[in-house]
Amino acid sequence: TTAGKAIRCKAAICRNAGEPLIIEEIEVDPPKAWEVRIKILCTSLCHSDITFWKMKPGPLSDFPRIFGHEATGVVESVGDHVEEVKEGELVLPVFAPDCGECRDCRSTKSNICSKFSVSSGQFGMPRDGTSRFRDMKGEVLHHFLSVSSFTEYTVVDVAHMVKLSHGIPVDKASLLSCGISTGIGASWKLAGVEEGSTVAIFGLGAVGLAVAEGARLRGASKIIGVDLNPEKFELGIKFGLTDFVNPSTCGEKSVSQVIKEMTEGGADYCFECVGLASLMTEAFRSSREGWGKTVILGVEMHGSPLSLNPYELLRGKSVAGALIGGLKPKSDIPLLAEKYIDKELNLEQFITHEVSFKDINKAFELLLGGKSLRCVIWM
Ligand code: CXF
Ligand code: ZN
């Protein structure tokens, strides 16, 4: 047994911003109290990995670092006080914490754990800030989003882990760690898209198309996709898109004008899935007076403030945002897994590519080039 000892294994290390990852031998410490050491079975690449991979060192970025935050794994060993899972169980690490004990975790109204935070500014474990990873020279390797899945073994806090039943294929499960859960959660839970409603989705990556899939399953009558990449429309039809707007071919008209004309005055639900303040404004303008709801899912990394006409709020429009689509990881993600098993949710269509761990840099190229939705990386 490996329990209680450091494990030597392979990891894909990012040594400098924007450089290809390098597969190296590392050492992974045993889990401390309230921690779980996980053998990663497969992982997938999310755009947030790329955002931080590109980022020059600063408060949110430091190297060497192990990226990756969508994955499926098996518990190898657990630290003291961990009773939720035991060796051999299937788990999903999740960047969004769910401690189960704080005021927020106990409330159905919040998914923002007040004991832990989404540790984008931290480089180690959520409880003590230290790393469980070292390279062969003894240099500390930083964690990412409390997950770090681009390694054969990782250690996560029990608050960042969801237990899964063994029925779900591990590659499909991995998608539920972040992007797809974000889109489906936003559509079903945060917005609550209903039958017959009109939906406009800004940005047709995996998150945007998961919003579309969620809206399609809820019976939305019009699902308009907005993207600069014309190839996204054909792709999006599979996910329920009924219409497409390419901002570069709108001519004199703004995107919101075009959408208002298509929807008799504005969409019932608008979703921003890119992370650009100007696009959030345009999404809000595209929403209907009276009840139009705009949902912000994109992570705005430029520090730009959001500009809205307050009078439009007086006229009944609203704006909301959420991490991971407003889902509470430990309770809601297993429900999505069940829906997949019951064939009420299609996850296959999001997997556009698969590579082996040694070819992980290909996954980066594909996502950067707008070629992939989700690339599964097999360990
Ligand atoms: C994001 C959410 C907000 C902080 C950075 C990462 N999550 C996942 O992609
Ligand atoms: Zn993500």
Provide an overview of this structure.
Helix content is 25%, strand content 23%. It has eleven helices and 17 strands. The strands form three sheets. Strands 3, 4, 5, 8, 9, 16 and 17 form a seven-stranded mixed β-sheet that branches. Strands 12-11-10-13-14-15 form a six-stranded parallel β-sheet, sandwiched between helices. It has a four-stranded antiparallel β-sheet with strand order 1-2-6-7, with no helix packed on it. β11, α6 (231-237) and β12 form a beta-alpha-beta unit. The longest helix is centred in the middle third of the chain and has 13 residues, at 179-191. The protein starts with 6 loop residues before the first strand and ends with a strand. The relative contact order is 0.15. The mean pLDDT is 96. The structure holds cyclohexylformamide and zinc ion. Cyclohexylformamide binds next to loops.
Short description:
This protein has 379 residues and is of the alpha/beta class. 25% of the residues lie in helices and 23% in strands.
In percent terms, what proportion of residues is strand?
15-25%
Major beta sheet summary: 7 strands, mixed
How many runs of DSSP E, i.e. beta strands?
17
Chemical compounds bound to the protein: cyclohexylformamide, zinc ion
Tally of helical runs: 11
